[in-house]
Amino acid sequence: MLPNVKINSYQFLVLVILFTIGTSILIVPSALASDSKQDAWIAAIFGTGIGLLIVWFFTKISLFFPNLTFVQMNETLFGKWLGKSFSFLFVCMTLLYTAILLYNSGTFLTTHQMSNTPIAATNILMAGILVMGVRLGLETIARSAEIFIGVFFLLFIILVIFIVPQIQFENLQPVWEVNIKSLARSSLLLIVVSSVNAVSLLMIFPAFINKPKSAQKYFLIGNLIAGIVIIIITLLCILVLGADLTARQMFPSYGLAKKINIGNYINRVEALMGTLWIISLYFKMVLYFYASVYGLAQIFNLRDYRALTYPLGMIVVILSLIVYPNVVDQQKFETTIGLYFSLTIGFLLPLLMVIVYAIRKKQLKKVTKAS
Amino acid sequence: MKRGIFILLILSIILTGCWNRRELNELAITLALGIDKSEDEYLISAQVVVPGEVSLTGGKVGSPVTLVQARGGTVYEAIRKMTKSSPRKIYPGHLRMLVLGESVAEEGIGDPLDLISRDWEFRSDFYVVVAKEDTAEHILNIQTPLENIPANKMFNTLKVSEENWSATSGVTIDELIVDLRSEGKEAVLTGILATGKQEGGSSKQSLETILSNINIQYDDLAVFKDDKLVGWLTENESRAYNGIINEVKSTVAAISCPNEGKANIEVLDFKSKLKGNVKNGNPEVDINVKIVGNIGAIECPIDISKPESIEALEKIYEKEVEETINNSITSVQEKYEADIFGFGDAIYRSNPKEWESLKNQWNQHFTELPVTIKVDVKLRKTGTVNNSITEPRKE
């Protein structure tokens, strides 16, 4: 059987925070502002609220079977063939998202910092540490996350304090101009990116947590903390850059860091702030990759999931290079097909699980007791 | 363990430095960029630092900067073409000034600015100015006293004068783009012009006399409509503009005394609030100005040891500020029909629903917009002395 590791609730909390912030911190303010303009922060609050509901829903489902991962749950609920095919779809999604995040990290680095470096070079290096992390196992990932969350919040607080002098409250007015339709549309992206995609975390929760019951609370708290970070970043982008510039920029929070200038002395620190996004991007990526590798290993009943890391790592690098023909296509995908794909796996599938569970409840109890 | 060390060694060979490093001595560090347009072609002038001349040891014989120029159908093309005459590639990461020639400004600045907001090497903290009745090329071709590098002189002068005189406005590139994109505010840029003898500014000899033959100085503000230059404000209008948009930090104002002569007020704190309102479908704007100042100089017979005279001076100054602002708004409304003050934005902020119907004919509405101005002046101190030197001694 696959090696049995356990992480504690605090480590899980840290992973949830980093996973949820993930890419949202880089791209969500722009997406929110293009639909909701200066009310983007309201959309962020709205999105975080709905996101919490979704995460609560996930925790409820996963605690049907506190010892099984998402992939195993599929198999128990839907039977061997149907369950495995659902799981395969799930693994396809997480693998695709690993590649997309790799593409994002590559684009971010090559747009702003190393414009002449081929994107393949940055992606191969990033994929290298990705494979390394997953090979070392969940415990190592969780422990390094514990260290990096400190760095992350230190940089985040520095960013917030340094940017405060540039705030112009007029940028927020008029408040509540947005109509419900565009509010819902723009917050949907945030809900999907930070909460619905957290379905991938069901590969860890609750099977690899030492106290699943208390970790349930931490799942929600982690999502809330990350949501607050995103709300703050969105609010700052609007307050400092204004709605129009926020929507126009590819990575508005990086534009925010560019604005830092304390007495002509502390400025040009955006490269340092880039660390922030790289940390959150890495942990989101590594958790997606872990979910795909581990999920695939469980589908095929492999003895050790590590055998899959190299081939899947290579696939991810290649996929990250060809996944989008260009940046515009990426934005299109994220706001259309990507949304539906995530919602299918991250919302419809769990909903189906609840229904099947309700129907087969008695029968399943016998099975689990027998085993 | 041994394998780990081996891999580490291999990696350290592969991963040294960056993919395509550019050492400092391969860069042409550009501090000012000028854009002119002639016959459908852009002429780009880049003021590039000559490192040897600005180093602390040695140098100091030639000019600290040099001008690299190229023509091209687009700005990007021209910048890349500069490599034809410059041994180093233009690096705009330290850009301080972007000077737009009057010809470009009149034709529209939107297109040439796109590159600058899109390219990753440009930052967003440099100032944009317009060469008044001149080309950008000529402005960048002038040596300056005090500051070795003309671009730095331009940057610092604009910064200092914006803070202390308030008739100029340091507009950075993002502020400009926000104004250009906004439906309720037109853009404004500070003008820059060459003074003195018009010849020989580029040689260092022009600095060998105490009063330099030629110098660059800032002038009043240029008014844009959409992205085209439509005219220039006067000095008073420029100061009123800065007052309305709440950009005055400190300034000095000359006011007339109750009887005759002049007094100066040193403005320490200048706050203005713009409030839009729509009444029965008609937009209107309230401007609320609060000024705190000191008496800077008294050049008239007035006994300022009496509280009444301070009060009288406050009243006079209030009235003069109100008049200046009022006249400036009327003149902009009549002459340019361009809402540079952001009144449209103010109405959008207060009445977003009504703005939807107003914005299509905003220029029309702007010209007829009623503006109410309220000024409140508080004079706190009288400087280091009380009465003026010429005031007769009290017996």
Could you describe the 3D structure shown?
The complex is a heterodimer of chains A (371) and B (395). Chain A is an all-alpha fold and 371 residues long. Chain A has a single domain (9-370), classed as Amino acid/polyamine transporter I, CATH 1.20.1740. Chain A contains 15 helices and 2 strands. Chain A has a two-stranded antiparallel sheet. The mean pLDDT of chain A is 88. Chain B is of the alpha/beta class. Chain B folds into 2 domains: 23-232, no CATH class; 235-395, GMP Synthetase, Chain A, domain 3, CATH 3.30.300. Helices cover 32% and strands 30% of the residues of chain B. Chain B has 13 helices and 13 strands. Chain B has helices spanning 2-14, 51-54, 75-81, 102-107, 110-118, 136-139, 150-164, 173-181, 235-244, 307-335, 343-350, 352-358, 362-367, and strands at 27-38, 41-49, 65-72, 89-91, 97-100, 127-131, 188-196, 214-225, 228-232, 251-256, 262-279, 282-299, 371-381. In chain B, strand 8 and strand 9 form a beta hairpin. In chain B, helix 9 packs across helix 10 and helix 11 packs across helix 12. The longest helix of chain B has 29 residues, at 307-335. The radius of gyration of chain B is 26 Å and the shape is globular. In chain B, 39% of the residues are buried. The model of chain B has no long low-confidence stretch (mean pLDDT 84). Chains A and B meet through loops of A and helix 8 and helix 11 of B.
